[in-house]
Amino acid sequence: MGAQMLAVLALLALCSQALASDPSPLQDFCVAIKDTDSRVFVNGKFCKNPYYTTADDFFFSGLDKPGNTSNSVGSKVTPVNVMQLPGLNTLGISMARIDYAPYGLNPLHMHPRATKVLVVLEGTLYVSFVTSNLDNRLFTKVLNKGDVFVFPKGLIHFQFNVGHTNAVAFAGLSSQNPGTITIANAVFEAKPPIKNDVLAKAFQVDKKVVDYLQAQFWMDNN
Ligand SMILES: *[C@@H]1O[C@H](CO)[C@@H](O)[C@H](O)[C@H]1NC(C)=O
Fold first, then answer.
1. Domain covering 69-181, topology
2. Ligand 1 centre and the CA of 72: distance in Å?
3. Residue 72 Cβ contacting ligand 1 at under 6 Å
4. 44-73 pLDDT, tens per residue?
5. pLDDT band at 23 (very low <50, low <70, confident <90, very high)
6. Is 21's C-beta closer than 6 angstroms to any atom of ligand 1?
7. Which atom number of ligand 1 is nearest to the Cα of residue 68?
């Protein structure tokens, strides 16, 4: 009986996690304390004493400045999440500016904790996401200035600047801490490396191909 009860409870816990986004706040705000040493989290960061909270805790400046896209992928993400803006703690939302050089790519990646809605301010972006197994359907769209596209939480996606000019987009994300898993980096630059016979079998290629890929420098544009 006890074991059954535990199993039911475990199942319930799993279900609620599968449905969960960032939890709802239990107070007006909970400005994050800047304590980089802390390894203790209460599903978010510790709150600063509200008595000492000021407008500056809810303020960030500089998103008018383009990110530096001089790198191997030709794009740069400038995030404004709870790390840059402590007032976002517990509020379930964040944003980013993304700059793209001509033919720059924000490479295949996913956000484990957030849906992303993107608006193009300048340029032309070819964007895609892929659904999960078994379909693995690819959805694509070419976006111009003023166009908006949504990338569902957890799905692999990218944006590619197919124009001859710089492009810039802004994104809203449904988590204070969306997280980013860049596919190539996670697969070919895991530390320590994933065994090459594992990757050779997973990708159905020769181990030499895997060795080559693992020897590359995988840019993190975040
Ligand atoms: C942009 O990044 C490149 C490569 O790291 C660097 O050489 C260059 O000075 C940077 N440009 C600016 C304006 O910061």
1. Jelly Rolls (2.60.120)
2. 12
3. no
4. 888 899 999 999 999 999 999 999 999 999
5. confident
6. no
7. 1
Residue 106 in marked binding region = yes
Return the domain boundaries, the chain.
Answer: 69-181
Nearest to 212 by CA among 193, 221, 222: 193
- pTM, whole model, 2 decimals? 0.88
Nearest Cα to Cα of residue 91 among 159, 193, 23: 23
Q: For the chain, what's the residue count?
A: 222
Residue 109 labeled ligand binder: yes
SS3 57: helix
Residue nearest to atom 7 of ligand 1 (CA): 70
Q: Residue 68: CB within 6 Å of ligand 1?
A: yes
- What residues contact residue 99 under an 8 Å CB cut-off, 6+ apart? 66, 67, 68, 69, 75, 76, 78, 166, 167, 168
> Hey, which of 65, 68, 76, 221 would you mutate to test ligand 1's pocket, going by the most ligand atoms within 8 Å of its Cβ?
68
Cis, peptide link before residue 102, omega less than 30° from 0: no
Residue 214 phi, psi dihedral angles, 5° rounding: -70, -20
Distance CA 208, CA 205 (A): 8
Residue 38 region by backbone torsions, left for phi larger than 0, else alpha for psi between -120 and 50, else beta? beta
Cα–ligand 1 centroid distance for 168 (angstroms)? 18
Let me know: does 48 contact 57? Beta carbons within 8 Å.
yes
The amino acid occupying position 19 is L
